[in-house]
Amino acid sequence: MASPEPVSARHRDGAAPACVVRFRHARRNPGHDGDDASGLCLRGGRGMHAPAARGGCTLVIALRGTVDVEADDGVFHLGGRRFLALAGNVPRRILAGPGADWILVHAPSRWVQALTAPTDRRGLASPLLLPAALPMDRGMLHRVSALLRLAPHPCDGEAGRELAGLVLAAREAQTHAVDWVERAYGRSERHRRAVVARLLTARNRILNAPFDTHDLRALADAARYSPSHFLRSFREVFGMTPHDLLTHTRLLRACALIQDGKLAICEIAARVGYESRHAFSRSFKRATGITATRFRASHR
């Protein structure tokens, strides 16, 4: 059970969020009355927001519009009906665009430990959520709606169940969206999830900064693996090498710029990180089967 408690919090610019609710455990031990024993649901709109530092597990959910989430592995760009799961601390900063509607849901460390403890009736393998930006499924959307219906004055008995239910629905949505854990090596699910979480540190850095130079050793260090072990594991889990992912991400951006039609091909090549138009043209044709010029002509 949990007891809800409205709290006051403000955006960086001083405007109050649309809804902030804190859910406290009804049964808590002495010395655990601080923020580390409470869950949080915050809903906001356009603007910049800097959540207070809190340990545990955090979900940032973009319901509408675009939301940029600054975290340890760079800036994640969320479109509508996508969510980002973060282990550990909350995001450093959230920047929401015009017309954006988003929520931040935080489950404290004690709640996460209860859900993943082997002796608990759930015994879910940790980490509870993988650090990745993925689309929501129908079950997660239903849980989001149920939680928001309780705010800002939820019933005492229902608030904690809905908060935990949303976190578990996010875990299910991750399982439905990707098969990374099944592809990872390891004798147990706990081990495989830990492997994927470490590899996602490197993958997120590539996706969040595709136009930067990403050295293999630096990416391996971020995942805490040797370069050879990292390269092999990355390919097994994600089905491509880090270089392939970098090229794929850059070319997706290039396709969008070509369709936009405002920049010349040589300008697009430089914009997406290629030193010359020729290098870009070779890479584009190898990936798509047609030249960039023909691709542009086919989308006019």
Keywords:
Arc Repressor Mutant, subunit A, seven-stranded antiparallel β-sheet, 44% helix, 3 domains, alpha+beta, DNA-binding, single chain, 300 residues, disordered N terminus, 21% strand, transcription regulation, 11 helices, Jelly Rolls, four-stranded antiparallel β-sheet
Helix content: 40-55%
Helix vs. strand class:
alpha+beta
| Strand segment tally | 11
Number of helices: 11
Output the CATH homologous superfamily of the largest domain.
Jelly Rolls
Instruction: Assign an overall shape.
Output: globular
CATH topology term of the largest domain: Jelly Rolls
- Please state how the strands of the largest beta sheet are arranged side by side: 1-2-3-10-5-8-11
The rounded Rg comes to: 21 Å
Describe the structure.
The radius of gyration is 21 Å and the shape is globular. The chain has three domains: 2-178, Jelly Rolls (Sandwich), CATH 2.60.120; 181-239; 244-298, Homeodomain-like (Arc Repressor Mutant, subunit A). The strands form two sheets. It has a seven-stranded antiparallel β-sheet. A four-stranded antiparallel β-sheet has the order 4-9-6-7. The chain is of the alpha+beta class and 300 residues long. Residues 1-20 and 24-35 have low confidence and may be disordered. The protein has eleven helices and eleven strands. It has helices at residues 109-116, 138-150, 156-177, 180-183, 189-208, 216-223, 227-238, 242-260, 265-271, 277-288, 292-298, and strands spanning 2-6, 19-25, 38-44, 47-49, 56-64, 67-71, 74-78, 82-87, 93-96, 101-108, 133-135. Helices cover 44% and strands 21% of the residues.
